[in-house]
Amino acid sequence: SRRDSPWTMPASFWQLATTSTRQGNSRSCLSRYNSAFYRKKMARSPSAHLIKRLREHEALQRRCGPGTEAYMAAAARLRSWHPNGTNHRDYTHVSCKYLVLVPYRGLGNNILAMASAFLYALLTDRVLLHDRTTSLGDIFCEPFQGASWLLPHHFPVKNLQNLTGNVQESYGHLVQRNDPAASVSVRRYVFVDLDHSCTYHDKLFFCDDHRRFLDRATWLLMRTDGYFVPALFLNPTYQEELDRLFPQKDAVFYLLAHYLFHPTNKVWGLITRFHDSYMRGSDERLGIQVRVFDGDTPFQHILDQILACTSREHLLPEVVTQEPPHPSTTSRARSKAVLMTGLSSWYYENIRWKYWQSATATGEAVSVYQPSHEEHQLSGYTTHDMKALAEMYLLSMTDKIVTSGWSTFGYVGHGLGGLTPWIMFRPENHTAPDPPCRRAKSMEPCMHGPPFYDCRAKQGADTGKLVPHVQHCEDMSWGLKLV
Ligand code: GDP
């Protein structure tokens, strides 16, 4: 039975972290209950304090989420708001505060943004809701039992995807006014723009003490496409609580992702059928995630880079030129399954041919698989996003993983798996870099657009040097990651 398989573990993190396991209908979201059977062990365990805070947060989402009186009151104030400044007293009567995340770009970006927004919501006691313009509802189960994390269709602020830092409600504008604290409460909402194009003033959000300023805003709307957790660790306001939540600093994404992201049954079917057919039976599994940012056509230098990396780091065996004498039929060769992902199938075809054409020097049997090759990014289309999620999840089920630098798809793959990746550096001038890849410092994703500001000293700083557990990323010299 499954319980006797090497994939067994006593209880999934989700079961540890929620009291309502038995209340839910286990068939409506199989991955929530069964994913633990597909993992050898938990790479990190949640602290008791994290579990306690998650339960409190679930209760908050139930008390204040869509469909509740609190939500209707908060939404009504948003709807009936007038720009004459007489509304602010109303806000004090709203009992719940909200964070609406507007995720955009690819699914990897979305997942990192959702995990970051959730941690911010947890730290500031805000209900987290997601703008549902993407395939979100089709690919993820609801994480909080008895409450939806999707923004209702009739949300009073329209066209959230078009909000930019230029709106009057933006945090960047508010902090530039003389009396920002007063102005928050008379705003309809506060918009936090964390896009790549955001300004120095927008990024002061990362130094904000929400208790003094943003606490007054019932509605916080946020646009981000990336992982901003490392910046929260630089804000003195959250330091103590983050220390209690995450005694191991490199466990943040891993634990949050396991708590939040449960593929729907359709995606879980894609994952388990592929895993059971091509990965489960092998002695070892290697993931290779290929993401090319210079176009969708195949590049020889990228193939060279993959081969150089896997050879130098002894992740794949060498091949021999001579046909070896046939091995005895009684001894079974050690098997290695290689799971490749990418938009193109060309890299996969080449590596598969390498190990079909020639025997390995070690005698290992190397089988190479790639679930799909979509050719082009089509984010937002349900079937396309389902495959993307299934593949990120399958990557997370490997034993070792090679990823492409700069790719949020890769960050999710290794982060969810609790795997410290070998990162292939992004090529410049169509040349494979030397060295082609390096083992990362931790399993955490990289924050691409970090602040360059020291919240304590109130001046510009190298934010990769302020605290020992926030350092620059291997694949992006200015990026930040937890280690
Ligand atoms: P990033 O652009 O690499 O940071 O990752 P994102 O996930 O944010 O955006 C890339 C998108 O392109 C994915 O979400 C998929 O829609 C698509 N894509 C890229 N690589 C792959 C892949 O290996 N497999 C599949 N199925 N889709 C991919």
From TrEMBL:
GO terms for biological process: cell wall biogenesis; cell wall organization; xyloglucan biosynthetic process. Keywords: Cell wall biogenesis/degradation, Glycoprotein, Glycosyltransferase, Golgi apparatus, Transferase. It is a single-pass type II membrane protein. The keyword Transferase applies. Its EC number is 2.4.1.-. Belongs to the glycosyltransferase 37 family. It is found in: Golgi apparatus, Golgi stack membrane. This is Fucosyltransferase. Its main location: Golgi. Transmembrane segments: none annotated. May be involved in cell wall biosynthesis. The chain holds residues 135 to 617 of 620 of the full protein.
